Amino acid sequence: MEALRKPGRTYVWVKVKPIVHITSISVAAISAITLYLALGLTYEFRLNVALALAVSLIPIAVLQTVDSRLCTEIDENLEKFLIDLADAQLSGISMIRALEEAAGRSYGALTGDIRYMVARIQWGFTVEDSLQIFKARAITPLSRKIAALVAEAVRYGGDLRTVFTGTAEFVRRINDLRRERWRRLRPYVIVFYISIILLLAITAILFKGFIEVIAVGGTTLQILPAVDKLWLKTAMLDLAIIESIFGGLSIGKVSEGAVKAGVKHTIALMAAVYVTFRYLL
Fold first, then answer.
1. Is the pTM of this model over 0.85?
2. For 209, what's the count of Cα atoms within 13 Å in the CB-facing half-sphere?
3. 7-22 residue pLDDT tens
4. In a 10 Å sphere around its CB, with 0-12 CB exposed, 13-18 middle and 19+ buried, how is residue 180 labelled?
């Protein structure tokens, strides 16, 4: 009964996520406040805040990436799990026996929750109650819906093989649609990156080849007034930071359907902004 005492990998992961989010956001806020108190609203403050935000958000980006892969693994193994249950029904064995056999197979990240559910059945819980626990532990919307559907099918009986086969086909189509969406939207993600990289490149070229010339005011181009070089750099930096934040989050929404998926893109763009304004301007 080790499976009943030991939480599944996905269950532990759900408990870890809020801690990582709170810690990273707190570090980002403390860093920004500390830099403000030390530097004020200066160019250096903006530049260092961009670096501090990029570094402090790395744990959230790593967590979201791993979480996305974990959820994808669970949803893709749902189809395999349902097909195995349908095959077991075709052979004439009971639902409990079918679940026990499934617990001995590998379904990736879904395996722990299946074994936990079977352990509860072996301890005397009904199949319906165990499926409800499985639903409560599920970390993806699709797995929760499938768990609820299977629980209702077991409760009311009928041709369970047909139910499992039809549900497996539904899960397969959902996973295929997700892969197709990523394939079709990938070019738009590249467009986002190219647009922001071009913004930084054009900024560097204009600043080095044009603004620094007229910033001397009266030496090279007599007809142009003196330009505040630091003010222009600060304005460009503000624009680049805003573009990297909202551009990165937009990439996440377009590519994966969730704004939080864009945190990793925001970090990459903020790092590019820091490198450009620290070393190229």
1. no
2. 6
3. 445 555 667 788 888 8
4. exposed
